[in-house]
Design goal:
Layout (H helix, E strand, L loop, with lengths): L3 H14 L14 H14 L2 E8 L2 E8 L8 E6 L21 E3 L3 H21 L7 E6 L7 H9 L4 E4 L7 E5 L1 E10 L14 H11 L3 H7 L9 E9 L9 E10 L7 H16 L4 E10 L2 E2 L5 H14 L5 E4 L5 H6 L5 E3 L14 E3 H19 L5
Parallel strand pairs: 3-5, 3-6, 6-14, 7-13
Antiparallel strand pairs: 1-2, 2-5, 4-15, 7-12, 8-10, 8-11, 9-10
The protein binds zinc ion (ZN).
C-alpha cells in the first residue's frame, strides 16, 4: 500500500495533468473530465457521490460521507477550474523539481488543496472512525469566472461550516475583500475632426473623471479593516471613439473597487456618482451615467467559530506552531457560502497566492502533505465534536 505522502502527490499530479481551464467565453477545456476523475476517486473511497449539473456539461462533483447524525456537518470546498494557460510552458506536466516544487497550471490554485482534502477524507475512511456529523466534499466549477458552481451548490447543500481550500500559505484566512464593478458611460457630441469645437469630446471628458479618481485614495486610506486593509479602486478598461476624423461622442469606463467585509452593495457606485456630480456641476458639457454591473460581498468570519478553532488546533498539532489568522486581498467562494447560505466559512490551503495564475505556477509538495494532515485532523476535530 502506498504511503499517504505518495498518495497525495500522485493524486496531485493526476489532477494537474487534466486540463480544467475555465471555459470563460467558450475558450477553455472545462471541468467535465476532472469532475469525473474526482467522482471516481471518491467512489473508490466508498463515499456517496454525484455530479450536480450546473450548466451544459459543467457539473460540480459532490461526495458525502454520512456521519451518525448527532454532530456538526462540514463541507470541504474546492474549485476544480483553473485560469488559462497562455504563456505557461508545460501547463499539464506536473513536474517536481529538485526543490520539491510541483509545477503546472492549478498546482497552487487549487489542485494542491484538493489533493490534500481528498487524501484526508480517505485517511478518515480507512481509519474506520465513524464521524458524528456529515462530511461533504464539493468540487465546484467556475470559481475563476462567475462562481456558478458554488451558487448552484448552496441551493441544495447546507452544512454547519465550510473550509474553502484556496492557497493561503498555510494560514487560516477568516476575512477577505469583496468587489464592485461599475460602468460609467460618458456622453459627448460627434463632430467632424476639422471642426472639433462643434463637438463634445467624450474621451477628453472621461479623462477628467479618471484623473479625479485619485481623490478617492485618501478616502479609502481612512477606511481600514484590521485584516484586509483599505478598499482599492482602479480603472479596468476604457473604450470610446469610432474613427480618426470624428470627435468621439461616447466613452465607456469600467472601474473596479475592492470592498471591505461589511461594506454594502452600491458603495462604489455612490463614490463614483459623487465624482460625476462634482464634474457635472463644474462643467455643463460633462454628462455621464453610472451603473453598478456586479457586486460580490467580502468575507468575515469570527475567529471564535468552531471550524476556525478546529482548523487552528489541527494546524498546531501538525506543525507545532500557532496558526496565523489572516485576511486575504482576493475574493473567494467562501463569501457565497457565508453570505448567501449562512455557512461559517474560512480558507486554508497550501501554496502562495503570488504563484496562483502566474506563468510558472507551483506548489511546495511538503506543504501539500502537511495540509493533508491538517485537513484530516480538522475533520475529526469538527465532525466528532458536538459544536452543532
Ligand atoms: Zn482559487
Amino acid at each position: 500500500m502506498k504511503s499517504r505522502r505518495n498518495e497525495t502527490v500522485s493524486l496531485l499530479k493526476s489532477l494537474v495533468k487534466i486540463d480544467s481551464v475555465n471555459p470563460f467565453d467558450d475558450r477553455g477545456g472545462g471541468e467535465a473530465e476532472i469532475a469525473e476523475f474526482i467522482r471516481a476517486t471518491l467512489d473508490s473511497y466508498g463515499l456517496a457521490t454525484r455530479l450536480q449539473r450546473v450548466k451544459g456539461r459543467r457539473a460540480n462533483v459532490v461526495g458525502l460521507l454520512r456521519g451518525t447524525g448527532n454532530g456538526p456537518a462540514l463541507m470541504l470546498n474546492g474549485h476544480i477550474d483553473t485560469v488559462g494557460v497562455s504563456g505557461v510552458k508545460d501547463p499539464f506536466g506536473g513536474r517536481i523539481d529538485g526543490q520539491g516544487l510541483l509545477h503546472g497550471r492549478g498546482a497552487c490554485d487549487m489542485k494542491g488543496s484538493i489533493a490534500s482534502m481528498l487524501t484526508a477524507i480517505k485517511s478518515v475512511v480507512d481509519s474506520g472512525t465513524r464521524l458524528r456529523g456529515d462530511l461533504v466534499f464539493a468540487g465546484v466549477v467556475d470559481e475563476e469566472y462567475l462562481s456558478l458552481g458554488t451558487r448552484a451548490l448552496v441551493r441544495e447543500y447546507r452544512t454547519d461550516a465550510a473550509i474553502v481550500g484556496e492557497p493561503t500559505g498555510m494560514d487560516v484566512a477568516i476575512a477577505h475583500k469583496g468587489y464592485d464593478w461599475v460602468e460609467v458611460t460618458i456622453r459627448g457630441r460627434a463632430a467632424h475632426g476639422s471642426v472639433p469645437e462643434k463637438g463634445i469630446d467624450a474621451i477628453e471628458k472621461a479623462s477628467t473623471l479618471v484623473a479625479s479618481l485619485s481623490s478617492l485614495k485618501s478616502v479609502h486610506a481612512a477606511l481600514k479593516h484590521p485584516l484586509v486593509g483599505s478598499p482599492r479602486m482602479h480603472t479596468s478598461t476604457i473604450a470610446g471613439g469610432t474613427e480618426w476624423s470624428v470627435v468621439p461622442e461616447s466613452c465607456t469606463l469600467h472601474l473596479e473597487r475592492r470592498t471591505l467585509p461589511g461594506e454594502r452593495k452600491g458603495v462604489a457606485k455612490r463614490e463614483v456618482q459623487r465624482l460625476v456630480d462634482n464634474l457635472s456641476a463644474e462643467d455643463p458639457e460633462f454628462h455621464a451615467t453610472v451603473a453598478e454591473l456586479f457586486h460580490q460581498s467580502g468575507l468575515e468570519t469570527s475567529s471564535k467559530e468552531p471550524i476556525v478553532r478546529s482548523l487552528g488546533a489541527a494546524y498546531r498539532s501538525v506543525t507545532g506552531r500557532r496558526a496565523k489568522m489572516v485576511g486575504m486581498p482576493y475574493w473567494t467562494d467562501a463569501a457565497l457560502l457565508s453570505g448567501e447560505a449562512g455557512i461559517p466559512a474560512c480558507l486554508f490551503g497550501p501554496g502562495d497566492i503570488r504563484q496562483a495564475h502566474s506563468a510558472d505556477e507551483y506548489v511546495d509538495v511538503k506543504d501539500v502533505e502537511d495540509a493533508t494532515l491538517v485537513f484530516e485532523r480538522a475533520i475529526r476535530g469538527f465532525c466528532l465534536s458536538d459544536a452543532k
